[in-house]
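Sample 3 of the quickstart, ligand zinc ion:
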Amino acid sequence: MSAAIGCNQTGEVEYRMNVKLVCLACGQGNRLPGDRLGKGAKCGTCGAALVPDKPVDISLDVLEKAARVDEIPLIVDFWAAWCGPCRMMAPEFSKAALASKGKARFAKLDTEAHPKASAQYAIRGIPLLIGFRNGKEAQRQTGVMQAAQITDWATALSRA
Ligand SMILES: [Zn+2]
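Result:
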């Protein structure tokens, strides 16, 4: 069940109840009050920021768990070091992560380090963004996007 209770007048999703989030660093499930999403909450197990303002490198195991459990949207950039367009998009993705802090979490999955991701998420080309919400894939987009486009995409996902 989603912890979102509605939208305020600026269209942002408001969270008042506790929100369940998987730590993107260690995979531990955490619960935090919704009003602390943008305020430096840390993982009870490893101390990593639960809602970081920049993309976090994520493993396939942690991604699977977070995609299933998280109660705020998760946006994952599937990339590889040999992919020029992926490297071009990286700073844009970082800017969008900063702009979207508290509305969505941003993560990066290295498809070379985690080759099983290709079959699991039916990846046909990279860079690929997949947005997860309420335990399932909600949006997907292949190809380079600018920071503003990614931010809009994240906003659409958080309102979906
Ligand atoms: Zn942790």
